[in-house]
Amino acid sequence: DGDLQELLERLASHARGFDGFTGKEAQRLRSAFQRFKVPDSADLHKDDLEAVLRYLGHVMTEQEGLLPLVQEVTSYDYLDFDEFLDFMERYIAYERERFRRVFDKYDSDRSGEISLQELRHLTSALGFAPHWAMVVEALTIVNADIHGQLTFDQLVAFLGVYRHSEGFTRPEVAEFRRQFDHFAGHGQGGEAVLHADDLS
Q1: Residue 140 is part of which domain span?
Q2: Which of 81, 119, 128, 147 has the most CB within a 10 Å radius?
Q3: Are residues 92 and 117 in the same domain?
Q4: Is the backbone of residue 143 left (phi > 0), alpha (psi -120 to 50) or beta?
């Protein structure tokens, strides 16, 4: 999966220090911005940032953590796209720091690694409980020992893989695609669509 490989490369790059968004990342952010911006406006309201971040697959989305980042970018309640990009750059650093704090909390023996048992507690604290098959797949993708320990960078990559797959394994995604293709018709623009009547 090319997108997944690109994600892993981006996470590794961010681990060495954030150096801006790639063109593809900026396009993905623009798409999310367009989806959540105020209708008939070029701006996004700051109260919608939590929803945008969840849509993008982020888990550290509490308003009290986001508002100081917004205030560093603008004193207004609305952000244009350039301000949104500035906010996202700050958010990436904020999220990584929050991940570090959570990692350190669950690295009970201070070894610089967490066990799979500690990973279960950590993911639960972040608000999700991945199925074991997803855990094994994600650990394999990030080159972690599925019976051993995860470093901080492997944890960040694991969470990125989890976000990318939305918690589903590759076989599950393939089955969803097969079922969708089986039942989908074509919309006005020729794209594959699944009509609401077909869902019952």
Answers
A1: 107-187
A2: 119
A3: no
A4: left
User: In this structure, is residue 8 part of a structural domain?
Assistant: no
DSSP 65-107: HHHHHHHHH-SSSEE-HHHHHHHHHHHHHHHHHHHHHHHHHH-
Encode pLDDT of 123-174 as tens digits. Answer: 888 777 778 888 888 888 887 776 678 889 888 888 888 777 766 666 766 7
- Would the pTM count as exceeding 0.85? no
Bin 179: left if φ > 0, else alpha if -120 < ψ < 50, else beta: alpha
35 touches 53 (CB < 8 A): no
- 77, 103, 129: which is the final residue of a domain? 103
β-strand partners of 115: 149
Structure tokens at 53: 């971040």
29 and 98 assigned to the same domain:
yes
